[in-house]
TrEMBL record:
PANTHER family: BLR1266 PROTEIN (PTHR12302:SF26), EBNA2 BINDING PROTEIN P100 (PTHR12302)
Domain TNase-like, first and last residues per copy: 47-176
Pfam families on file: SNase (PF00565)
Protein name as it appears in the record: Thermonuclease family protein
Signal peptide annotation: 1-20
This protein's record includes keyword Transcription: no
Entry keywords, A to Z: Signal
Residue intervals passing through the bilayer: none
InterPro entries hit by this protein: SNase_OB-fold_sf, Staphylococal_nuclease_OB-fold, Thermonucl_AS
Amino acid sequence: MFKPCMVIVASFLLISCAQAQSDDHILTACQQWQSVNMAQYAKNNVKQYSGRIVKISDGDTVQIQDTHGQKHRVRLAFIDAPEMRQAAGKESFKNLQNMLSRQKTVQVQVTDIDQYQRQVAIVWQGDVDVNASQLAQGLAWHYDSIAKKQQQVDAYRYYQCLHQQAQKQRVGLWRNHQAQAPWAFRQSERAQ
């Protein structure tokens, strides 16, 4: 009984370490386009504020309570994570949940308000761009059609590079050869 458990734990640790090394490699490969200035990531800078995570709904939607106590529904800008009913949807959600500590402050750069009245924003925890991390870990698509219009050129290249490197290295959802983009999944569900 002891040996099979040790094998399972050792396998999990090896996979986790390999995943972390792959994520670091992807971030390093794309670093030439990364900007350290949050305001340079989007063409529109509606507003910025600090807050803490109150709820995580899926791999690209959170609720944030700002420092004045107001709650905001936030859609992560320029990415589209798999839906919860879709392959890798729960994995994307859990990754975001693990990444975002409810105890730590996040910085929010609102770039737009969407049709559901959610703030579309880039979320930072410390110096980590949460949106970009979802791409680097292969748990979201770069929302190319929107990003081309709304993202600054270097930020667009950075996110596109992260997306392509994750896909090339078959990280996260890219392990599935038939991964379906969330917008195609939603469209097929509406058609049924």
